[in-house]
Specification:
This protein is mostly helical and 468 residues long. It contains 19 helices and eight strands.
Length: 468
């Protein structure tokens, strides 16, 4: 389309119309041979008075809309509306009213008459010809014809495309309809009103333009590249998770509307799915006496390993090297899961989380020392720090683990104190797991490397740092 002139007034509109007609005429002539006898006829049909008079007749075949029925169903027949957004009630919710003066009208009807609407979309000084005619701009009207009466008739014909084509509101069997309760008695027909929803085509076009810019604009491309490369960027990165695309019109999007054709049938649907519950990054032992009975047993790998260990021991394997290696491998898996559970609670929860007496009052004190070690750094937790540094609590953790594992194996298996002592020893001597985790915590807390020997504690088991 030719560039609209910068001058205003009647001369500006005349120049815009002339440039529009000349561009369309040239497109027609380019398809004809220089000696084609139809050239003169085509040139005559693009004389301003002739073309505008013809357009005034064809304008009845189309209708300007802001809210359309066609996108609801392409074969639906009924009322379309043209309501400028500033005329709509102002609401807190997003709607067509939010577009204000910056909106693009759509047009529905015979696609062969869409050139009439393209004429009316011509802009002069930022104002479309249609908007000027609707506002009864004298300059725009005078640009249609030198005869004032003819100009008035053309103006009335062109602005009629913003009016409904039917006598009154109508819907169709292929259109959506719903009864809306407006009164207080749901059993009374008179308390309902029948609504026929229309597609807010002007709003959809504005949303499409915004999403396109946010997805494919140069600014967002630079921001997306910086995000992927984990680089600092002073711009804003836009993303639309769950974005869907609804294509309207198939291979003939112009049968839906002019704006739909400009978008090649593409209409964006923003995600309106209900929120999806996501489990917390780490489970907490709320109202539990021990993490073994609630958190540890809930881990899938723990349940699978327990089942495998139980089945293996119930098969009464021979007492040989292969049996011992198989048993130790299964036990190592349990120990790895226990160390992983402790690391999750230690690293993902804030220091001092076990101070919440409402939720963790029942939790064993030794397990609080184990699972919430950074609580010892809080100034008000001097006693907790001393208890942690004394290091007799790891033995209690080993005993709890041994008791728990025996409880899981009891049934057909005759496990007792001897097995419990073995499970406890395996945990406390796990140099690459439980023991290594304690070393790292002592380094983090700047604690002495030597672990004091306490009766029944770590040192009593012969597992001090001096004798790993």
């Amino acid at each position: 389309m030719s560039k609209a002139p910068e001058t205003g007034g009647e001369a500006g509109y005349r120049a815009a119309i002339g440039a529009f007609l000349q561009e369309r005429l040239q497109a027609k002539l380019d398809k004809l041979k220089p000696d084609d006898p139809q050239r003169e006829e085509v040139i005559a049909s693009f004389v301003s008075e002739v073309w505008l008079a013809n357009a005034a007749k064809r304008v009845e075949q189309i209708q300007a809309v802001t809210h359309s029925l066609k996108p609801i169903h392409p074969d639906a027949r009924g009322t379309n509306l043209y309501v400028e957004p500033p005329a709509l009630p102002s609401l807190a919710e997003l709607g067509s009213h939010a577009l204000g003066q910056q909106f693009v009208g759509d047009v529905v009807g015979n696609a062969a008459a869409l050139d009439v609407y393209k004429l009316l979309k011509l802009e002069v000084n930022g104002r479309t010809l249609l908007a000027a005619l609707l506002a009864q701009d004298a300059d725009a009207q005078a640009a249609l014809h030198t005869d004032p009466a003819q100009a008035q008739a053309l103006r009335d014909a062109f602005v009629s495309l913003t009016q409904p084509r039917a006598e009154g509101p109508s819907s169709h069997t292929l259109a959506k309809q719903l009864y809306w309760l407006t009164g207080s008695d749901a059993c009374t027909d008179a308390d309902y009103v029948l609504l026929a929803p229309l597609y807010a085509t002007s709003l959809a076009h504005a949303v499409h333009a915004q999403v396109q810019e946010d997805r494919f604009g140069d600014a967002n491309k630079a921001a997306r590249q910086a995000w992927r490369e984990r680089k600092a960027h002073d711009g804003v990165f836009h993303d639309y998770p769950g974005l869907a695309v609804q294509n309207m019109g198939g291979t003939k999007p112009q049968n839906i509307s002019q704006l739909n054709s400009e978008r090649r049938g593409m209409n964006y649907l923003l995600s309106s799915l209900p929120p999806r519950w996501e489990a917390s990054a780490v489970r907490m032992p709320v109202h539990a006496e021990s993490v073994f009975d609630r958190l540890f047993i809930a881990r899938p790998d723990v349940r699978r390993t327990l089942r495998a260990l139980r089945q293996f021991l119930e098969s009464e394997p021979e007492a040989n090297l292969a049996t011992r290696q198989r048993r130790e491998a299964l036990l190592d898996t349990l120990l790895d899961e226990l160390v992983a559970l402790a690391a999750e609670l230690q690293q993902l929860l804030p220091p001092g989380w076990t101070c919440d007496d409402e939720r963790f009052a029942k939790l064993d004190y030794e397990q609080k020392l184990w699972l919430d070690p950074l609580r010892a750094e809080r100034p008000e937790e001097a006693q907790f720090a001393r208890d942690w540094l004394w290091m007799d609590w790891p033995s209690a953790i080993g005993k709890s683990f041994a008791t728990w594992l025996n409880d899981q194996l009891r049934g057909k298996l005759p496990v007792g104190d001897a097995e419990a002592r073995e499970w406890k020893k395996e945990l406390l001597t796990d140099g690459d797991g439980f023991k290594q985790q304690l070393r790292e915590l002592r380094d983090k807390l700047d604690a002495p490397r030597d672990i004091p020997v306490a009766k029944g504690g770590w040192g009593a088991a012969g597992l001090s740092e001096q004798n790993p």
